[in-house]
Amino acid sequence: MPRVSQDHLDARRRQILDGSRSCFARFGYEGATVRRLEEATGLSRGAIFHHFKDKESLFLALAEDDATRMADVVAEQGLVQVMRNLLEHPGDGRSHTPGADWLGTRLEVSRRLRTDHEFRQRWAQRSEQLTAATRARLQWQRDAGNLRDDVSVDVLTAYLELVLEGLVSHLAMGLPAEHLSAVLNVVEESVRRHRQ
Questions:
Q1: Number of domains in the chain
Q2: Cβ(51)–Cβ(76) below 8 Å
Q3: For residues 98 and 81, is the Cβ–Cβ distance under 8 A?
Q4: What is the signed CA dihedral for 47, 50, 54, 57, rounded to 10 degrees?
């Protein structure tokens, strides 16, 4: 029996994550049945669950992958850019644009954090990545003299995370998004250092 290369295994895992991302974004956690996951990934349940222990592990890996991708955007452009990506591409399960399906995953994470104690414990071990990236980006901006210095970096990090959660809730409720780009401009301006 020929051995499967690590590149092939990595590509298969990526195929599963990408397909399941669209499935979870369209149907939610409960609605993403094994049959729908098979259809979305183009793989059998055996192939899917060869890479992931169960649906919960798959969803957690997907949420972690999204958090990593968001942290990469934060490191380069800041948390407000993550919010802009969510606003520009709120996610319908069909796009591969950064941010396109983050909303669906983020909503499911938020819901499960509220209702599932075991998931909350598992997610807590993985969720620090986005906060750490935001804190590091803000510290870099402060060191460069671009960030207001009358408030701690930790407070500014918490502020931006709250704005992100509010944006996610706003988009999830289907409320009008016409002024949200301008709102994000105000948020961005509120953390900047104003020179006299």
A1: 1
A2: no
A3: no
A4: -110
Distance CA 165, CA 31 (A): 23
Token representation of residue 139: 């510290």
pLDDT beneath 50: ranges in the chain: 92-98
For the domain that residue 186 is a member of, what is the CATH number?
Answer: 1.10.357.10
The per-residue pLDDT for 2 is 58
pTM: 0.79
Domain contains 3:
no
The domain in which residue 126 lies consists of 54-191
What is the per-residue pLDDT across 162-175, written as a single tens digit (0 to 9) for each? Answer: 999 899 888 888 88
Spatial CA neighbour of 62 closest among 16, 121, 26, 103: 16
Q: 3-state SS string over the chain?
A: CCCCCHHHHHHHHHHHHHHHHHHHHHHHHHHCCHHHHHHHHCCCHHHHHHHCCCHHHHHHHHHHHHHHHHHHHHHHHCHHHHHHHHHHCCCCCCCCCCCCCHHHHHHHHHHHHHHCHHHHHHHHCCCHHHHHHHHHHHHHHHHCCCECCCCCHHHHHHHHHHHHHHHHHHHHCCCCCCCHHHHHHHHHHHHECCCC
Residue 101 pLDDT: 67
